[in-house]
Design a protein that fits this description.
Elements: H1 3-27, H2 31-56, H3 60-85
Helix pairs in contact: 1-2, 2-3
Length: about 90
C-alpha cells in the first residue's frame, strides 16, 4: 500500500526538520531566531505525534498533539511579549 512507503518517508523528513530546528535553537545567533526555532520545533513535534498516531491507529496521540499546540502557542506569545516589552504580565 502507499502508506507503507509514505509514512516512513514522512517520519524521516519531519525528524530531519526537527533536528535542524533544534540545531537552530542551540546555535542562535539571536533571540528572535531562537524563538522562531522553538516555534518550528513544537510544530515539528506535533507533526511527529500525528504521524505516530496514524501509524499506531490511536487517537491518544492526536489529543497530545492538540495539547502541545496549545502550550506551544502560549509559550511563543509569552516569549515574544518578553522580548518586545521585557515583561510578560502587564
Amino acid at each position: 500500500m502507499m502508506s507503507s512507503v509514505a509514512l516512513p518517508v514522512a517520519f524521516a523528513l519531519v525528524a530531519a526538520a526537527f533536528a535542524l530546528s533544534f540545531w537552530r535553537l542551540l546555535v542562535g545567533p539571536s533571540a528572535p531566531d531562537r524563538i522562531l526555532a522553538l516555534d518550528t520545533l513544537y510544530i515539528n513535534a506535533i507533526a511527529l505525534l500525528v504521524l505516530l498516531g496514524i501509524h499506531l491507529s490511536s487517537a491518544l496521540y492526536f489529543e497530545a498533539a492538540l495539547l502541545i499546540a496549545l502550550m506551544g502557542f502560549i509559550g511563543t506569545v509569552a516569549f515574544c511579549k518578553y522580548l518586545l516589552r521585557g515583561d510578560i504580565i502587564e
